Amino acid sequence: MNSVILQIATRYLKVLFLSFACIAVIRGHNYPGGGFIGGLLAALYIVYSSLAFSVQQIRRQLKVKPQYYIGLGLLCALLSFMPSLVSGAPLMKGIWFTIDSSIIGKIKLGSPLLFDFGVFFTVMGVTLLFLFTLSNHK
Amino acid sequence: MILILILYLVLALALFLIPKKLSKGIPFPLAFMQLVFFVFFISQLSLVETEKARIISIEWIPYLGLNLEFTLDGLSMIFVLLITFIGFLVFIYAQVYMKSYAGTTRFYFYLLLFSGSMLGLVLSTNFIQLFIFWELTSVLSFLLISFFNEKEKARKAAFQSLFVTGFGGLCLFVAVLLIGSIVDSYMFSDWLDKAHVIKSDPRYLPALIFVLIGIFTKSAQFPFHFWLPWAMQAPTPVSAYLHSATMVKAGVFLLARLYPVLGGTIEWDYIVTFIGALTMLVGSYLSITQVDFKLVLAYTTISALGILTMLFGIDTKLSVKAALVFLFVHAFYKAALFMLAGYISKQTGTRLIPKLGGLMKFTPWGFVIALISLLSMAGIPPMLGFIGKELIYEAKFDSPWMSSILIFLGVTSNVFMVAVSFLLLSKVFLGQSKTSIKSHNTKYKLLLFSPGILAFLSLGLGIFPDMLTPIIEPALNVIHSGNFQIKLKLWHGFNQILLLSMITALLGLLLFIILNRYKSVIKVWNRINSQIFSISFTNVFFKGLDRFISFSGKNTRLIQHGYNRYYIITIILYTSLLLILQLYLTRGWEIGLTFNLKPFYISGLAVVIAMSVFFSVFSKNIIFTISAMAVTGYGISLIYLYYSAVDLAITQIIVETLMVVMFVLVLQGLPKFASLSSRMAKIRDGVISLVFGTIMTIVTLKAITVDFNTSISGYFVDYSYLKAYGKNVVNVILVDFRALDTLGEITVLSIAALGVYSLLNKRK
């Protein structure tokens, strides 16, 4: 497919897609969203842009191999165990703390959020790996 | 104690951090460390004497009532001292011996781990824990035998030893579980308290047999002895350490450990004595005709292990005492001889006895060491071996049953031992030198240090045997719970035992002279042997293994045929069958469901979904099929939305979109649907799908009416915000309440992705 409209649109959609994916992860704890949805959204953006250009081109533009995203995701998920291990709580108990900033208001950070990012990266990496491998195989 | 064990592990791992350049110097510090441990344990000796035992217990799996328990008592002390002391000597020996080989770091890694796990084995009084160390020693023995892994023979030997000892290990585990189920504990102290309960239980006999199989495989008792000669493929330090002084004695150790628990019954006495005596005889008999120096030693080791086993079977105080003394006797002379064999093969390049000769001129010190050790092996005064043999004869005289038969067998076996000792001495060290040692290598001089010390001990302790009593006394008291005083003397006075010793020595000498004078005797003997032992155990083992492998190959090809369609059919049919059975058993087809009308847009949606499914099945165009499937998915996500499952709906929509895009990307290059399946296959597939679909529909409908336990979802809803600070229950379940599941899922996803990646890239 070689549509100029689609190609230019992806450029602008990039910000929208990726920020939306991030927001989906962060707000996931309280509202619909979460790491899985976020990861799929991010992957969706790359799939769209590879429709607009070509898979090979996108693959070249993407500096990081999808395998590394998978590794990063699993690492995040594992690291999210650490707080509960260190504090002696049952494994994977969510540990939260709140940052009180005057600008945006209260921000809650916790190990489940890190875990969710782990899910995010893994899902994105897996999807991309599927995509690249399958399209490469032709 | 535990600190020492941990130190072994840490140091072993740390070996890999040492740069290549320095790696040649590894063994000296390690040997020194072993010596320090040896001294440490020696200093604990008086404690063991007075306090009986030092027990360290750590909580391990509390809800199973399992504690890690390390006990230093008289019995473990003997073995601990042997392991650390011989370990010290072996490391010094290996420093020179292993210099010219590659991969020495790996070697020391294994060897150090072995020392540690052997220590762990003898210190354990929790039997589950003991089993773990037991298996560790088997595995490390496997790794060490196969150290020269470029040689096929070494690999085979290693595999064989692992197979045999691993089989024994499993038997031991069964026995541990059996006894554990009798007394409901895995602690040695509990077993000891309830020894009479165990002995009167109907499970006693099977447990005993399994324990003994474990012990006999480890200690190379007949008919499991065949792996030990093969294990001589290992580097010589390993043969000296594992396969003569320590690992093969693990079985003897367990015999001694379990003696108060399982011993003293008729079954124990008969089986252990019989197998031990048989092994003793077979080992010494077969050793005579061997031509490889190390193989001679291997067979005499088997014989010695047989003696030890037999002594625990005779089941008297004297026999146990004899066994404990003989443990030292054998460790000293056999390790020394192994090291000497290694030294000789380094110097001359061969271990075959017919090629050796007249080495006395080249290595006078080697000759002295060999002389002392071999005399000790033959049981000639004033060596320690003499005392050991005297005690054994005494124990046999004292045996409450079969005394005369045992004495006869013992004398026969010892005659062979004496003959072998003299044969080795004369053929290797005396007579004409057949191989010229090209350059008189002084760099191997240090190899004589360790066997020298051992030989010195064989002689020195023979003259002053009382130095061994503080070590042996506590062990005897542990095995035969009581308080005994023992005395060891070189000179027992002139009695029938001494007479027996003299007869043995004379007969052995006679046999040696015959064998030495008439060379043809050995050849004839060999021929007879090959007739009698035409069924070589090793051959049987490997043939059986080949059969087994080809059988499992056929089996695998039958089940794992590689046709994806048949896999799927099998899975679906089997699942359907199970579901039908369950539905039939629970009268599950009766669904008391009342259909209530949903709003028209939902009903309409259902119709659209059904239509698109129909379309996707019968479409001729791949793009149409994909689109129709997408319509199904989107429709379902709308239904999710109707039931306010927002997360599910979003996920479903995104997944559908991704799938369509990916399918289009991947499949647009494919041709139109071709009909490759025959009519029959189509009908078959259709029937299978219809059956499965129908059953799944029934199950789904059933699921609505079944009352689930609502407490869980209620709990999640109630505590989602209170405990996990999240308002989105689905997400909280995913990342907090059930985070471990999610972790598993993403791991599976990753593995699947990597699988796709590697499979598809392979075909390039």
UniProtKB/TrEMBL annotation, chain A:
Pfam family, one: MnhB
Alphabetical list of InterPro entries matching this protein: CPA3_antiporter_subunitB, MnhB
Entry GO CC: plasma membrane
Entry superkingdom: Bacteria
Domain Na+/H+ antiporter MnhB subunit-related protein stretches: 5-128
Keywords: Cell membrane, Membrane, Transmembrane, Transmembrane helix
Transmembrane segments: 12-29, 35-56, 68-92, 112-134
Cell membrane as UniProt keyword: yes
UniProt topology in membrane: Multi-pass membrane protein
Localization annotation: Cell membrane
Keyword Lipoprotein: no
Family membership: Belongs to the CPA3 antiporters (TC 2.A.63) subunit B family.
Protein name, per record: Cation:proton antiporter
Organism: Plebeiibacterium marinum
UniProtKB/TrEMBL annotation, chain B:
Sequence ranges assigned to domain NADH:quinone oxidoreductase/Mrp antiporter transmembrane in this UniProt record: 124-412
Domain annotation MrpA C-terminal/MbhE: ranges: 682-762
GO cellular component: plasma membrane
Presence of the UniProt keyword Transport in the record: yes
Top-level lineage group: Bacteria
Compartments it resides in: Cell membrane; Membrane
GO BP of this protein: monoatomic ion transport
GO MF term set: antiporter activity
Residue ranges of every copy of the NADH-Ubiquinone oxidoreductase (complex I) chain 5 N-terminal domain listed in the record: 63-108
Keyword Calcium: no
The MrpA C-terminal/MbhD domain, residue ranges: 607-672
One protein family per Pfam: MbhD
Membrane topology: Multi-pass membrane protein
Name under which the protein is recorded: Proton-conducting transporter membrane subunit
Organism of this sequence: Plebeiibacterium marinum
